[in-house]
Design goal:
By secondary structure, the protein is mainly α. It is built from 13 helices and 2 strands.
Amino acid sequence: MFNLIRNEWGKIFRQKSTFIMIGLLILIVFVNAGMTKYLEGKEKASGNDWKQELMAKNESMKQEAENVQVMTPSLKEFYDTEMALNNYRIKNDLPPASESTVWTFINDSTGLIPFAGLFVLIIAAGIVANEFTWGTIKVLLVKPYKRWKILLSKYIAVNIFLLILLIILFVFSALAGVVLFGTGEAAQNVHLAYVNGQVQEQSLFLYLIKSYIFNALSIFLLAAMAFMISAVFRNSALAIGLSVFLLFTGETITNLLAAKFEWVKYSLFANTNLMQYVDGMPLVESMTMKFSIIILFIYFFIFHVLAFLFFTKRDIAS
């Protein structure tokens, strides 16, 4: 099995596109850091009292919430969270950070995880389908390995690639953050989270690790789906197109549907965001962490049953 995984890993890194994707991810991190630094430098320090500013923001958000035509659960969560955090800072005399630090930049860089996910989906969608497109599948199957081991080695290689990209994103975000923003004061290394209607103080470092893991979960599930489509339909274009579409629109569509239908809680994208249980409210009130984990496991199981069933049972056409 190790030799199979090493072989698949070699195939991934023999492609120039792999290094291009890694280079683009690193470039995006530094461009994002540079833009953040530039925009902070352009902003003029306000002479107003920060407590007055937070109270004004809360009043503005209240008016915005009243004028919203369709209040989706995610939008309501946003307003409730921001106002609760602002009130907590005012009450406990905790001024918001006026400048970015390495920690805040790493946290902001979780927004770049979908870009890493895009590259992973491209690999996952093509790792099986391309064998059929290039005609190398027969050469692969004549080797003294069972089909399920061949497919499993490909899937493991995809997830190792996902892990590598996440590490690259985290490490280079930390590097760019230290160079451009510094470590900040010790008092800033605390994260405020709004959980079950209450504000909690959490370790910022542990929160960042948890945030990266939980935000990568949707990529992990989408990669499994792209891998399944690649194995079932042998079509990398279909796998890439569908998975990338869902990557950037799935959560938005789910949020809109959740405003009217409770059955949305059984969909994939209603459950991939486990951060909703860490620093927010569940998309649907009856949802729990345990419920989401069970639903995700069911989808994960279905994707892999289909992938392995079709790959191991179907004849390879000449």
